[in-house]
Amino acid sequence: DLMTALMVLFLLVMSVALLSVTKTVSEAERAKAERERDIYALLEKVRQATDRYPGVTVDKSRNVIDFGDRARFDTASHHLNPEQAKLLRAFVPEILVIAQDDLGKRWIKRIVVEGFADQRGTYLYNLNLSLQRSQRVLCVLLGPPLLDEAPMNPEQLEQIRELFLVGGYS
């Protein structure tokens, strides 16, 4: 009977351990589902903001805002034309508002400005060019506005400095 008691005690301990592990896994799955739902809602807010800017889209599968042809650089250039700069300075304040709401504060830690280059030229040349392109976007955002634009306030400029990060790819 001592063996039976030990076996029952072992089964009881194993049952409690399995319940504990199962509960931890289900809590992790619940947290993951909540995170995905929150990020989807956040990206939906960004998508709604892009509706006012034709050509700007949101890829929810990659968590990316794509400016497409609206921010395309000329070949071998890292300069934006005035129309492109104006679009960026009009759109980014809307993103900053989203970043300041509850979901934004919870999930937006960094906004990476990715610069790209085509396959013409050497790897190092294209790497440098793509980095210059992403830097140019931040320079446009932090630089003075055109005459017909409203300037960003100091809080918005500080948010850009804190949130935005440059990156380049060749």
What oligomeric state best describes the polypeptide chains here? single chain
State the distance separating the first and last CA atoms: 73 Å
Overall residue-averaged pLDDT value: 89
**Spans of at least 5 consecutive residues with low confidence:** none
C-alpha Rg, in Å?
24 Å
How would you write the strand order of the largest sheet?
1-2
* Total helical elements: 5
Tell me about the biggest sheet? 2 strands, antiparallel
Helix-strand pattern: HEEHHEHHE
How is the secondary structure organized here?
Blueprint: H1 2-50, E1 57-59, E2 64-66, H2 82-100, H3 102-107, E3 111-115, H4 123-142, H5 154-163, E4 164-168
Parallel strand pairs: 3-4
Antiparallel strand pairs: 1-2
Helix pairs in contact: 1-2
Explain the overall architecture.
By secondary structure, this protein is mainly α. 61% of the residues lie in helices and 9% in strands. It has a two-stranded antiparallel ribbon with strand order 1-2. Strand 1 (57-59) and strand 2 form a beta hairpin. Helix 1 (2-50) packs antiparallel against helix 2 (82-100). The longest helix has 49 residues, at 2-50. The radius of gyration is 24 Å and the shape is elongated.
